[in-house]
Amino acid sequence: MLSQFVGYCLTGAAGAQEAPCQRRSIPVALRDNQNLPFQDISVAELEAKVRGKPVKILSFAPDPRPHRLVLLLDTSGSMGSTAGESPLFALGLALARHFFEVHQQWSHIALLTFNKNVTEALDFTKGNSAVGEKLQEIASDRNYVKANVKGTTALRDTILEGLQLLDHPSSADALYLLTDGGDNASKHSATDDNLLEIELPFLLAKNERWELRVSDAARRQRKGAQITYPMILISCNSEVSEVGRR
Length: 246
What we know:
By secondary structure, this protein is an alpha/beta fold. 30% of the residues lie in helices and 27% in strands. The chain has helices spanning 88-103, 128-140, 144-148, 155-166, 193-196, 200-208, 216-221, 238-245; strands at 6-11, 23-31, 46-50, 53-54, 56-62, 67-74, 107-114, 118-122, 173-178, 210-214, 226-228, 233-234.
């Protein structure tokens, strides 16, 4: 699950032949071994490296900026029922409702449901209450899966529509995608320049080879606490997951 964004700033000791000392702030998420968010951790319990070399962590604190989150809920045919099993959509909806309950107090939340097109759109102007009511309405409708969970999956197109809702996104914003598979209906390709915009935090961390981890001692004490970059994608499909990792 996506926890509250936490910013940290790194600085490294510059040698005589090295570039001047730099500072960077990166949003990350804190999770315990049950994948639940937590915040009560100190700088002393963390370790950071840049290009494999230890650096000093200047601060680690909750991000005070307002957060905007877009829920993207897959209603394509593959999310429907299979023989003898509950529809995957039921799991996706349950996760969406849990996500909403956890984050509604400190975030502005929008909702898109989609298959080959966006089938339902509640933007930020509708308010969190409208999103909560829509999720409850879907959960209460016994015929929803039969009537609405169908068609192909325009995954990339929907990600871009979610990005458009954010307008000028920052590291305080996120997309939260609930899907079971890859794209088979989008007009946009995986190399679309606009799609790459949502990958910049990952490209930055990868190119500069930043690492932030909970120390071994703290992990033992906190039962497997871990830090992740706050992306968005919940999927069993390698193609989808790769969008978030690059």
